[in-house]
Amino acid sequence: MEFDFNAVPEKVFVDTVHLRVINGLLHVVLRSGDAMDCYLLPLPLAKLMGKGIMAQVEEIEKKHNISFDEQIPEGAQISPWTIDSEEGGK
């Protein structure tokens, strides 16, 4: 059964994401402005979620003939997706 995304009472735009596996759990920190939430996912669920996201992104790339950069830099990096509200985005 498909999830009804229209039934969600509130949607929050996330401007920064931090991910790390610690003690066998995927820690996901989502930031929206000054608000921050942390979620813990068991690794099998994290893997399933990653595969689902990848399948949807590949479908979008194929449909629109575009390609997102797949390279993951070594070490800690500043997120290229952090939004600066005063500048309208980076």
The largest sheet, given as strand count, sense and whether it forms a barrel, is:
3 strands, antiparallel
Number of helices: 1
Q: Supply Rg.
A: 15 Å
Stretches where pLDDT is under 50 for at least 5 consecutive residues are none
Query: What average pLDDT do the residues reach?
Result: 83
Shape verdict: globular
Secondary structure category: alpha+beta
Task: Count every beta strand, where a strand is a DSSP E run of 2 or more residues.
Answer: 3
Percent in helix:
10-25%
Q: What oligomerization state is this entry in?
A: single chain
- Give the strand line-up of the largest sheet: 1-2-3
End-to-end Cα distance:
38 Å
What's the order of the H and E elements?
EEEH
